[in-house]
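---------- Forwarded message ----------

FYI, see the Enoyl-CoA delta isomerase 1, mitochondrial record below. Original note from H. follows.
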Amino acid sequence: MAVVYRSWKALTQNAILTRSVSNSLRLYSQKPPAPVVPLVNVEVDDKSGVAVVTLNRPPVNSLNTPLLTELGAAIKNLEDNKSRGMILTSSSDTVFSAGLDILEMYNTPKDQLSAFWTTLQSTWLSLYRSSFPTVAAINGHSPAGGCLLALSCEYRVMVGPKFSIGLNETQLGIVAPPWFVICMRDVIGHRQTELALTTGRLFSAPEALKIGLIDSMVSNKAEAMAEAQKFITQFAKIPPLARKLTKESVRGEGIRYMEDNMIDDLQIFMDLVTQPKIQKGLEMYLATLKKK
Ligand SMILES: CC/C=C\C/C=C\CCC/C=C/CC(=O)SCCNC(=O)CCNC(=O)[C@H](O)C(C)(C)COP(=O)(O)OP(=O)(O)OC[C@H]1O[C@@H](n2cnc3c(N)ncnc32)[C@H](O)[C@@H]1OP(=O)(O)O
């Protein structure tokens, strides 16, 4: 028995030695690890105290769980540091955000699907009810979840005329949840929301301006940033607590909807999105995006 033990021990020690030599060799031959690039960049201007939060998930800033988690953490950080305001924009020249990452909803294990949706719910709520002023500087296309992010800010400046924005969910065979609808309705009104959502219409920037989906159209990102700063500056003289409570009051319906229905909303999402028919629709939509 002792012999067996000794030889087993020798064997394992030998294996450990071999493994550590080969690991070191592998380390020498490996490239240095790629730097971890944040999916969300935050830069706070020293003078104005305004934070520029830039979505940075090429190519199209589709919203997956890690990006939404980082965005939620960035907003919490600004909240904790009593931020003067936030401008949400994109590192891409052509896309603000392509909306929810369809790969997070297609053929996804249930626990991941659930984590994805709850992250979206909580990040959305923290943006929608943030105490500081928020502006979306929409410097590219902004369909579906991208439009939701923009609608959740207090002011929207969009680079035009060639980019589009809207809640196009029905075109994909999916349904914009009630809190998406509330956001849209509060910005463009009941009638326009019904027309826009049932048809899944994407609006060009000039069309969006006409129905009030965006507040202003500019011709490049620099102009968008300048206008966003200007919007935030007007709050310098407004007492922050009065501003925050007023915003919460105006946005009460959306806030209460989410607070009271988080679990039901998750359940409805899970039931709907896992239906074979919806999965097939998402598969076909992904294929058309890839074929382009
Ligand atoms: C209570 C609950 C009730 C109901 C719940 C039920 C259902 C759930 C509702 C869920 C709501 C969802 C909202 C969404 O946000 S769904 C996403 C909708 N998004 C879109 O329709 C946009 C699709 N993308 C585009 O139109 C174009 O990509 C875009 C105009 C943004 C940019 O065009 P461009 O030419 O610049 O890029 P592309 O070549 O098209 O794309 C580059 C690569 O990126 C991939 N891609 C694009 N968009 C997405 C996406 N949203 N998700 C995942 N991947 C995406 C695209 O396939 C290309 O990939 P490769 O070919 O390079 O591999």
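H. also flagged this: The chain has one domain: 40-290.
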